[in-house]
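The protein record now logged underneath.
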Amino acid sequence: MKIITLFFLVTFSIIIFIEEISVVSAQTKSDTSIDVLTSMLVNNKNKQQNNYGILLNNGAIIVGKSILNAGSISGNGIYYLSYNWINNGIFVANLSSITFNGNLAQSIQGSNSTIFNNLRLNNSMGLSYINCYDATINGIFTLMNGNFDLGNNNLIIGSDATIIQTSEDSNHMIIQSGSGVLTKKGNNNINASFTFPIGDNFGNLDYSPITLTFNGGTYSGSSSVKVMDVKHPHDASTTNYLTRYWTISQTGYSGFYCNISATYLSSDINSNNEALITTAKWDSILPWVKCNAVNNTNHNLIANNITSFSDIGGIDGSLNVEINSSPSDANLCKGKSTVVLNGVSSGGASPVTNIWAPTIGLSPSIGAVVIANPLLSTTYIYMAKDANGITASDSVPVIVNEPHNINGTINYYNNALTPMTNTTINLFRNETFQSTYVVTNAYYEFIDMCPGSYNFRISSTISTEGSVNGTDAAQVNAFPSNFCSIEKVRFYSGDVVGITSPLLNSTDAQRIMNHFVNETPFERPEWTFWIAGDHISCNSANAEFNSPLIINSSDSNIITTNIYALCTGDFNRSFIPNLNKSANNKVNLLNSNRIKVKNSELIEIPIKVEESYKIGAISLILDYPSDKIEIESVVMNSNNGSYEWATIGNELRIAWFSSDALYLNKGETLLKLNIKLKRLINY
């Protein structure tokens, strides 16, 4: 072996290739020759680094094996190390840089801890600790190629130090294969952020970095991170969880808020729907603290505004709760009704427990389905808690209302507002039957009704005979041009056809005339009822057949609602209920002479007016002996308008209306009846 005893004082840029160097006394090498050694052995121990030591200011040393037994190494130079770093002496880093660039796996060893300035790893076989103390890096740690496996040691990154990765992946990271943690010393930058480029080698090389971003507070200590490639031992989730978690700790930090972002792998996901996983924090006791939803696009756990550190992972966040109430508006009348509350929970880590709060007014006070009957309005909360202590809740306000009375009158909508009798009112609330009232003399009343939306369904047994005539048809025909705003009860009494499309037109007019002449039934019920005072404008496209009565809890305790009634078709409002005959006899026989005719001989009988008239409609019901006379035709003294006639039993019914009035002077013929005799009679 070649032994060279020398002392190097390098003050100029030079690269020295060293096979082996043993420093035993202070000596000076003054020439510029290059010696190549395979190892560097520093044996002498001396307080003066410039005596019995190596001082490297600007040059670079390429070392095959470095052993620092008792001496010292210092300076600002560059060390390229192709074997192991063994520190049993004193290493003063100053501004130096050490690069591990061997072809085999390299290690840091020695009985003394090493404080590096700049450290670079450029070895695909990696770097590890072997039987040594923790190392500290106060400059820049560059992961050029290969991983640094901490094993059971820690790596400390100084307060102003940084870590640079030439590529952020599983070949440029710090492996935590044992109990070792990566520690970053703090500084008082209130917006400090640091990414811990950590991962594991449990089975595969998994890169799972975590970033801590601080706001506020003081940072005179350090923060440390450890990643574990397993499901957290205190996670009770059976689905929607991660098989990875991070342990974060700190010392000397106070008053801070920290945003955490940790990256997991797709192989860590145990869920059919990653979005159901939630970020949660384990503080060594239940419950888990639920944080933010995961970023399932980038596979990130997110926890914002954290004020203390512990374990962070991804657990089942699918717990969901809702309350269904019956009735759906959760309104009740004091002493009259109750509300059924059904709490439904789904998801979460089993088992899931449920509670109601408050319990006052509930029967029973536990269980998913309860009956609420509080004396005062109360908001009930249904909360579910899963095995991880994660909770979800829903609430519903149960409104307690004082009961109301509904009363009023129901009158026929003619000029006299005739009181209705023999009329039945059925009251419905939200399509649920409430009560019945039989009207005997206009007045009705319902006692103790809850606030809500009510509909009256009304029927009457009063006869509608004689309620419809040609004048109704004429006014309906004229409605689009001669009316604009009318009571809804009148509008719907005239709309005898349009259940699916409320509209007044000539079709309704023709149907009314057919009803009068031929007793053709309407497509609507015989009676029309509506709340008095409700109007409709012209032929509204928004017309409706049901107009609910809305009672609010703030309304007066007595709600007065008057109702109008009309026979369907009585658009001119001329009918008077309960009269035996609603029509008047206006036809007089003017010629009482007798004439003789033959059987089947056609006879023309004129019907004339006694006074001068402007006529827009005619409604005639004439009694005649149908066993003796046969009506052949009815001829109007007008070619305008619409008219019909028909015989029903012993009645001749004639109806005519026109938008162009028929002007007749006294004695002029209104119409002619052409008849035949079935047998000879005197006429």
Observations:
- Confidence is low (pLDDT under 50) at residues 1-60, 541-545, 581-585.
- The helical segments are 470-482, 488-494, 506-518.
